[in-house]
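Good morning,

Attaching, inline, the backbone tokens for the sequence recovery test we're adding to the shared suite. The designed sequence is right after.
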């Protein structure tokens, strides 16, 4: 239940930033440790975080996507427009991932 409130708060924050900026969402306006799914890409493409960090992926497209690590560490359900998925990284390493629905979409989380 708490994750739902956090996800809603993040979405409202992003919507507020977009509304007040009057322009398209840019990476510097995105809450820390957030990956946006937009234009059939993950933005940022590579994200570096510390062990214990929770990363949130937010789908900003009308198309459904998912987030699947190449090594099976994490796998989201389908993420619809405006929805999000979170995962907490507990071990250092590199975690390449992709969209299982659109395999050409690839990115990486680097945990230090």
């Amino acid at each position: 239940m708490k994750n739902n409130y956090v996800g809603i708060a993040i979405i409202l924050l992003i919507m507020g930033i977009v509304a007040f900026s009057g322009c398209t969402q840019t990476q510097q306006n995105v809450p820390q440790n957030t990956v946006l799914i937009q234009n059939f890409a993950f933005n940022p493409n590579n994200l570096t975080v510390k062990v214990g960090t929770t990363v949130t992926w937010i789908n900003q497209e009308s198309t459904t996507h998912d987030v699947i690590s190449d090594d099976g560490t994490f796998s989201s359900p389908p993420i619809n427009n405006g929805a999000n998925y979170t995962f907490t990284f507990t071990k250092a390493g590199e975690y390449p991932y992709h969209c299982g629905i659109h395999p050409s979409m690839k990115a990486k989380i680097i945990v230090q």
